[in-house]
Amino acid sequence: MEEKQVNDVNNKPQFAIFDWIVSLPVIRIVKPLYEWKKAFWIYCFLGLLSTIANYVFTIVFTESLGLYGTVANVLAWLLSTLISFVLFRYLYFDRTNNSFINELVKFASARIFTLGVETLTVLVFVDILGIDIKIVKAVLIPVTAILNYFISKIFVFKNKEEKTA
Questions:
Q1: Residue 53: inside a domain, yes or no?
Q2: Domain total of the chain
Q3: CA geometry: angle at 92 spanning 164 and 155, to 5°?
Q4: For 40-55, how does the pLDDT look when each residue is reduced to its tens digit (9 = 90+)?
Q5: Which of 71, 90, 73, 89 is nearest to 137 (CA)?
Q6: What is the pLDDT of residue 1?
Protein backbone atom coordinates (compact mmCIF):
# COMPACT_ATOMS: atom_id res chain seq x y z
CA MET A 1 0.00 0.00 0.00
CA GLU A 2 2.87 2.39 0.70
CA GLU A 3 4.18 1.83 -2.84
CA LYS A 4 0.81 3.03 -4.17
CA GLN A 5 1.07 6.22 -2.10
CA VAL A 6 4.57 6.90 -3.41
CA ASN A 7 3.43 6.39 -6.99
CA ASP A 8 0.43 8.67 -6.46
CA VAL A 9 2.67 11.38 -5.00
CA ASN A 10 5.18 11.08 -7.84
CA ASN A 11 2.53 11.17 -10.58
CA LYS A 12 0.68 14.34 -9.66
CA PRO A 13 -0.49 16.25 -12.75
CA GLN A 14 1.21 19.44 -11.54
CA PHE A 15 4.57 17.62 -11.67
CA ALA A 16 4.33 17.37 -15.48
CA ILE A 17 6.32 20.57 -16.00
CA PHE A 18 9.17 19.13 -13.92
CA ASP A 19 9.02 15.86 -15.86
CA TRP A 20 9.35 17.88 -19.08
CA ILE A 21 12.32 19.89 -17.73
CA VAL A 22 14.14 16.69 -16.73
CA SER A 23 13.57 15.28 -20.22
CA LEU A 24 15.55 18.13 -21.85
CA PRO A 25 18.81 16.93 -23.42
CA VAL A 26 21.30 18.56 -21.05
CA ILE A 27 19.28 17.87 -17.92
CA ARG A 28 18.33 14.30 -18.88
CA ILE A 29 21.46 13.00 -17.17
CA VAL A 30 19.85 13.53 -13.74
CA LYS A 31 16.59 11.81 -14.70
CA PRO A 32 17.29 8.56 -12.77
CA LEU A 33 17.98 10.52 -9.60
CA TYR A 34 14.90 12.67 -10.21
CA GLU A 35 12.66 9.63 -10.78
CA TRP A 36 14.00 7.95 -7.63
CA LYS A 37 12.65 10.67 -5.28
CA LYS A 38 10.63 12.95 -7.54
CA ALA A 39 8.50 14.59 -4.83
CA PHE A 40 11.57 15.35 -2.72
CA TRP A 41 13.47 16.99 -5.59
CA ILE A 42 10.47 19.06 -6.63
CA TYR A 43 10.01 20.24 -3.05
CA CYS A 44 13.70 21.19 -2.94
CA PHE A 45 13.46 23.07 -6.23
CA LEU A 46 10.40 25.06 -5.16
CA GLY A 47 11.99 25.76 -1.80
CA LEU A 48 15.11 26.94 -3.58
CA LEU A 49 13.06 29.43 -5.62
CA SER A 50 11.44 30.95 -2.54
CA THR A 51 14.79 30.92 -0.71
CA ILE A 52 16.44 32.79 -3.57
CA ALA A 53 13.59 35.32 -3.52
CA ASN A 54 14.05 35.81 0.24
CA TYR A 55 17.80 36.23 -0.11
CA VAL A 56 17.57 38.65 -3.06
CA PHE A 57 14.86 40.76 -1.40
CA THR A 58 16.96 40.97 1.77
CA ILE A 59 20.05 42.12 -0.10
CA VAL A 60 18.09 44.64 -2.19
CA PHE A 61 16.41 46.06 0.91
CA THR A 62 19.67 46.39 2.85
CA GLU A 63 22.06 47.48 0.10
CA SER A 64 19.80 49.43 -2.26
CA LEU A 65 17.30 50.86 0.21
CA GLY A 66 19.62 51.05 3.21
CA LEU A 67 17.23 49.32 5.61
CA TYR A 68 18.38 47.72 8.85
CA GLY A 69 18.95 43.99 8.57
CA THR A 70 15.98 43.10 10.77
CA VAL A 71 13.59 45.35 8.82
CA ALA A 72 14.86 44.02 5.50
CA ASN A 73 14.55 40.45 6.77
CA VAL A 74 10.90 40.91 7.78
CA LEU A 75 9.96 42.56 4.47
CA ALA A 76 11.80 39.86 2.51
CA TRP A 77 10.05 37.22 4.62
CA LEU A 78 6.61 38.69 3.80
CA LEU A 79 7.26 38.66 0.05
CA SER A 80 9.00 35.29 -0.08
CA THR A 81 6.36 33.66 2.15
CA LEU A 82 3.65 34.72 -0.30
CA ILE A 83 5.72 33.39 -3.23
CA SER A 84 6.44 30.17 -1.35
CA PHE A 85 2.79 29.65 -0.45
CA VAL A 86 1.65 30.00 -4.04
CA LEU A 87 4.41 27.69 -5.35
CA PHE A 88 3.80 24.97 -2.77
CA ARG A 89 0.02 25.23 -2.81
CA TYR A 90 -0.36 24.86 -6.56
CA LEU A 91 2.74 22.94 -7.63
CA TYR A 92 3.45 20.62 -4.73
CA PHE A 93 0.65 19.99 -2.27
CA ASP A 94 -2.17 20.31 -4.86
CA ARG A 95 -4.55 22.01 -2.46
CA THR A 96 -6.58 24.03 -4.96
CA ASN A 97 -9.91 22.76 -3.58
CA ASN A 98 -9.33 24.21 -0.10
CA SER A 99 -9.83 27.80 1.02
CA PHE A 100 -6.99 29.97 -0.29
CA ILE A 101 -7.25 32.48 2.56
CA ASN A 102 -7.54 29.80 5.24
CA GLU A 103 -4.43 27.98 4.04
CA LEU A 104 -2.52 31.25 3.50
CA VAL A 105 -3.21 32.29 7.09
CA LYS A 106 -2.16 28.85 8.39
CA PHE A 107 0.94 28.87 6.19
CA ALA A 108 2.04 32.36 7.26
CA SER A 109 1.21 31.68 10.91
CA ALA A 110 3.23 28.48 10.90
CA ARG A 111 6.18 30.24 9.29
CA ILE A 112 6.19 33.01 11.89
CA PHE A 113 8.29 30.66 14.01
CA THR A 114 11.06 30.58 11.41
CA LEU A 115 10.69 34.33 10.92
CA GLY A 116 11.40 34.69 14.63
CA VAL A 117 14.46 32.46 14.37
CA GLU A 118 15.73 34.42 11.36
CA THR A 119 14.98 37.86 12.80
CA LEU A 120 16.64 37.13 16.13
CA THR A 121 19.69 35.71 14.36
CA VAL A 122 19.92 38.73 12.01
CA LEU A 123 19.46 41.14 14.91
CA VAL A 124 22.30 39.58 16.89
CA PHE A 125 24.78 38.78 14.11
CA VAL A 126 24.11 41.62 11.62
CA ASP A 127 22.68 44.58 13.52
CA ILE A 128 24.64 44.10 16.76
CA LEU A 129 27.82 42.22 15.82
CA GLY A 130 28.14 43.71 12.31
CA ILE A 131 28.56 40.46 10.35
CA ASP A 132 27.67 40.73 6.65
CA ILE A 133 24.00 39.88 6.12
CA LYS A 134 24.86 37.80 3.03
CA ILE A 135 26.85 35.39 5.19
CA VAL A 136 24.22 35.23 7.94
CA LYS A 137 21.37 34.62 5.49
CA ALA A 138 23.40 31.91 3.72
CA VAL A 139 23.88 30.08 7.02
CA LEU A 140 20.18 30.44 7.88
CA ILE A 141 18.95 28.94 4.59
CA PRO A 142 19.26 25.23 5.47
CA VAL A 143 17.93 25.77 8.99
CA THR A 144 14.78 27.55 7.84
CA ALA A 145 14.30 25.18 4.89
CA ILE A 146 14.19 22.13 7.14
CA LEU A 147 11.94 23.81 9.70
CA ASN A 148 9.57 25.08 6.99
CA TYR A 149 9.28 21.66 5.36
CA PHE A 150 8.13 19.97 8.56
CA ILE A 151 5.85 22.85 9.54
CA SER A 152 4.15 22.80 6.11
CA LYS A 153 3.83 19.03 5.93
CA ILE A 154 2.55 18.54 9.49
CA PHE A 155 0.45 21.63 10.18
CA VAL A 156 -0.55 23.42 6.98
CA PHE A 157 -1.12 21.14 4.00
CA LYS A 158 -2.08 17.86 5.67
CA ASN A 159 -5.22 16.13 4.51
CA LYS A 160 -8.11 16.07 6.92
CA GLU A 161 -8.02 12.28 7.09
CA GLU A 162 -4.27 12.22 7.82
CA LYS A 163 -3.27 11.82 11.45
CA THR A 164 0.00 13.14 12.80
CA ALA A 165 2.02 10.85 15.01
A1: yes
A2: 1
A3: 25
A4: 888 888 888 988 998 9
A5: 73
A6: 40
